[in-house]
Amino acid sequence: MRKSTPAESVDSYLSALPEEVRAALEKLRKIIKAAAPDTTEVIGYRIPVFKLHGHPLVGFGAAKKHCSFFTMSSSMIPKLARMRAGELKGHDVSGATIHFTPDKPLPAALVKRLVKERIAENEKRAKRRG
Question: Is the terminal CB of the chain with fewer CB neighbours within 10 Å at N or C?
């Protein structure tokens, strides 16, 4: 879906997408920002990434046939696998990533909860490192 040249900013990443995909990812972006207002948005791994305490928190992206919400934490893999039959029913889960389509976005409450869990992980990591 994306052109091969990496985006320089989250806004430029989004502006290169088809309208329906852009709208879905902009909505996801707003939900993430509301749940994690102290984060910094960057392009990392060629996708929009929210960082907290200098470490990736969550990210999102667009592929040819779906959008993705990246939890960016291997500790989230078992949790997401358990959620497949419930809250994530109808969404493809691959490792720590949830795939969705613009016509079937992720529920805002679910995204907020996952972001809050990732914030707790990042803060715990930051405290350990001093």
Answer: C
- Could you tell me the strand order of the sheet in which 97-100 lies? 40-44, 47-52, 55-62, 67-70, 97-100, 92-94
Tell me how far CA of residue 66 lies from CA of 70, 75, 93, 121, in angstroms. 13, 23, 12, 27
CB neighbours of 110 closer than 8 A, spacing ≥ 6?
Answer: 87, 88
* 114/117 Cα distance (integer angstroms): 5
CATH number at residue 93: 3.90.1150.200
Provide CB contacts within 8 A for 82, sequence distance 6+.
none
Residue 70 lies in a domain: yes
Residue indicated by tokens 């959008």: 67
Residues 76-122 have pLDDT tens digits of 999 999 998 899 998 999 999 999 999 999 999 999 999 999 999 99
CB atoms within 10 A of CB 120: 10
Distance CA 72, CA 55 (A): 10
